[in-house]
Amino acid sequence: MARAVSTQRKIAYTAAAWAVGLTIFFPVFWTILTSFKTEADAVASPPVFLAADWTLQNYADVWSRSDYPRFFWNSVVISIGSTILGLAIAIPAAWSMAFVPGKRTKDLLMWMLSTKMMPAVGVLIPMYLIFLWTGLFDTRTGLILALMLMNLPIIVWMLYTYFKEIPAEILEAARMDGASLRNEIIYVLTPMAIPGIASTMLLNIILAWNEAFWTITLTTVDAAPLSAFIASFSAPQGLFYAKLSAASTMAIAPILIMGWFSQKQLVRGLTFGAVK
Amino acid sequence: MSTHSTRSAARLMVSPSVILLFIWMIVPLAMTAYFSFRFYRLLSPERTGWVGFNNYTWFLNSPDFWVAITNTLLLVGGVLIITVVLGVLIALLIDQPIWGQGPLRILVISPFFVMPPVAASIWENLFMHPQNGLLAAVSRGFGTDPILYLETYPMVSIIFIVSWEWLPFATLILLTALQSMSSEQLEAAEMDGASALARLRYLILPHLGRAITVVILIQTIFLLGIFGEIFTTTQGGPGNSSTTLPYMIYKQALIAKDIGRAAAGGIIAVILANIVAIFLMRGIGKHLDT
Description:
The complex is a heterodimer of chains A (about 280) and B (about 290). Chain A is mainly alpha-helical. Chain A is about 70% helix and about 0% strand. Chain A contains 12 helices and no strands. By secondary structure, chain B is mainly alpha-helical. At the A-B interface, α1, α4, α5, α6 and α7 of A face α1, α3, α4, α5 and α6 of B.
């Protein structure tokens, strides 16, 4: 709702809005800044804002001295794996609910949403035991399954809202021209659905990457992703601030960048299509 | 019109999702219910048996329980109020004609993409740490003693951290809703002499109603399960002062290894979440068009 205003007012609004924005962003900025400081500068008092000797040493240290690469790799495999598996199961479901809706479709969608209401702690014990019994505990396969199921309702909902915007007339036209169901999906539906599928994929990679309940409770060492690693990076003894900042920056950087690209789709995805 | 065969094909395509979600819901829930009536401790596996409602009685009478319930409600309520109120104000500000709205949106949304353990760890160490934190340096700058944020005010500190994570989400959704508003209506109101406050009260807030409902629903789902932030910072302490219901159940299950009692806690959490959900779904059901 842009309206014409005087330049003076525009300057005032701009200054105020940027002040708020920079304040909100400051902790992220400070973390990134600290990651390039020496450990001594990182805890200097009064704090050093533009320290003299910038260094990349913290990144090298974190990457080489800890098991960091393994945690990072686990995060990649688990977030991408659970998203792809989720899409494979959700795409047919969302497709049929959008194009062949039955009397129960709305109820079914609301029921799927309601499964998200179930607090994870309510099923923590069985999941923990089932994972111990089946050998899925502390494996990437186990976490892929758990996170896929956790996000499945969101994936179905998000795809459904995108698919519903594809005009059904186009499909009917293709059908009248004699296209088989298979051709209809491959040549007509897929090209139109790809933007929606891509946004869904991006959002779910973000959600899976940042997940911090199942990753903490269902792993110990082998399959632990970054969220579990950072959570146990506690007991701050000695000089470790710069390294913690470097480890944190590497953990959030890929998602931050993906998030910036997908922020418009994020609104729609996380509000189940209610706000566009 | 869909033929009979497409309809059965459609059912076939929906069923994997439905079956998986059904199993994911029912099997663990049934097991939790079963365990909640059993004596089951991983550290004394030789002893088993039915104990009736003993696990529930223990859980409900535990001094931690009411603290956990209060803290859970404080956390959800506190974060909702902070994020919705500030979210509306910030969205209104960003929606004004300003320079650099695009980059600003990116700055504001960023905290939402920071994974909870990292967010908690940044605040705990780089900001709230009593010796080396930035806030301690600020206190020293004013010549006052640094505040032990997480030790003295654990719940307030956690509510603050979680609000920082969720404020961007609320702001972005409210901003998106604001931008879909027609400017003609606002201009007409302005020309008719409606004050800024009147425009907010009678035009903007009603328009945001649906978005606010959605923000409350989605955030409540996530906030009821807040875990990573507490695990990373206070571990529920000092004492039990920042223990929430999820954290209390986690402690019973994975630290005390008392499956029976933890399961009783799980069932209580499910019942409470359902009470909240019924109210929310009733509110949101009207707003979601399917």
